[in-house]
Amino acid sequence: MNCFGTDKPLKRREKLTTSFLRPGSKFVGTQKSDRQKYEVSVEIKDVDLEQSFLCGYLRIQGLTDEHPTLITFFEGEIVGPKYQFKTSHSGWNSDDKNDMAHWGLLPKWKQVAKAARLPNFTVSNHLQREQLWMRWKEYFLVPDHRVKTISGASFEGFYYICFNQCSGAVDGVYFHRNSEKYQTLRLEHVDDHGCEAAVEFR
Q: Of 21, 35, 91, 158, which has the highest C-beta tally within 10 A?
């Protein structure tokens, strides 16, 4: 299956990206809980697949009356040679049981579920698979990075993500120990007709 866009030769110091996962890519959709549905958009700012890294901005509408629009900066780690399905960050307050419960809600999980439970399991050739598994961790509010907490909202948790490299679809489940369980995220790629973000150096 060659729909990932990773085959082009890299120039010196050029970061590995794909047709959907590259700086400037945008995704729109919703985040749902049992009681509410919120509009969400994501813009990718940087991608380095060789380092299993990406980052960007996540915008959510209507989460609180005081802050009708919240924008956070997040960083993503891609499951592969560098990161495993097991969440290794102690400060994220997850464990093996919680990881498996959240991963298990995502599409195509059955394809890797058995192997993922093995100690030190690593996804081989992860960039050549249709599904990329990730965690997206929000770090601070944009534009004021000094704001760490907001009444009625939380951005202290993280998302378990299943990304379809052929369609650009994003499925996720949000986790924070003090938030409503199993809030789901569904995003679709915004077609930019192949245009990439331009950067001007002065």
A: 158
For residues 58 and 26, give the distance between their C-alpha atoms in angstroms, rounded to a whole number.
10
Q: Give the predicted TM-score (pTM) of the model.
A: 0.87
Q: Residues 174, 119, 158, CA angle at the centre, nearest 5°?
A: 15
Q: Is-contact 44 170, C-beta < 8 A?
A: no
Taking the C-alpha atoms of residue 39 and residue 136, their distance in angstroms, rounded to an integer, is 17
pLDDT at 168: 96
Asked if 156 and 171 count as a contact pair (C-beta separation under 8 A), the reply is no
> Does a cis peptide bond (omega within 30 degrees of 0) precede residue 107?
no
Structure tokens at 94: 């997850």
User: For residue range 26-41, what is the model confidence (pLDDT) as tens digits?
Assistant: 999 999 988 889 999 9
